[in-house]
Write a structure and sequence with these properties.
- By secondary structure, this protein is α+β, with helices and mostly antiparallel strands.
- About 20% of the residues lie in helices and about 50% in strands.
- A hairpin with a 4-residue loop joins strand 5 and strand 6.
Length: about 190
């Protein structure tokens, strides 16, 4: 009888270990709608940040107006973005104060692959986003921004493995406080932390 019990346990152990034999222990967890919206929001914010750095950073304060071609991480080009408005700074506070508009026209942007699944995206951005508030330049200052759009469109992929993502003419209402960005995309709560 003991021999039969050991045989059953051995068989059960073999079957159970067989169930996990092909599973990937490091497989990424599923990315539901809020996860996808958060990654898309990261993509939009990082695309805005790049446009700001290319067109505004290091320029004289005051009225701003510049346009640049958009480029994916693989070097391919697609679309353009125009940034215009007003930007001033306070060297003592280590802050820049912005009242800007970003006009995206089929602007393609992606990041190099990341080992962190929710930091991967390859998106095309279309629409106008207004941005106002404070950008921290020094650690003694904190970024505090509000970003809005009446009709933002995104298409492409988010996450790793890539998931198709698309929104069309959606409202965007988000704020950035320090490294946290959160708000509403297409009527859904979304957010991420840098």
């Amino acid at each position: 009888m003991l021999h039969v019990r050991l045989g059953v346990w051995s068989l059960a152990a073999a079957l159970l270990s067989g169930c996990s034999a092909g599973a990937e222990p490091d497989a990424a967890p599923p990315c539901e709608q809020s996860c996808q919206d958060g990654i898309a929001l990261r993509g939009v914010r990082e695309t805005m940040k790049l446009a700001y750095n290319l067109l505004i950073q290091g320029r004289p304060v005051g009225a701003q107006d510049g346009t640049t071609d958009c480029r994916s991480s693989d070097g391919s080009m697609g679309g353009k973005v125009r940034v215009f408005g007003n930007a001033t700074s306070n060297a003592v506070q280590g802050s820049s104060f912005v009242e800007l508009e970003y006009d995206f026209e089929q602007c393609a942007y992606s990041v190099p692959p990341s080992a962190t699944p929710d930091q991967n995206y390859d998106l095309v951005v279309s629409g106008r986003i207004t941005q106002h508030g404070t950008l921290a330049v020094q650690p003694s200052s904190t970024t505090a921004l509000v970003m809005d759009s009446d009709a933002l469109s995104l298409s492409g992929t988010v996450y790793d493995p890539p998931l198709q993502y698309e929104i069309s003419a959606c409202e965007l209402a988000v704020a950035q406080q320090g490294s946290r960005v959160s708000g509403v995309v297409c009527g859904r709560n979304a957010g991420f932390t840098f």
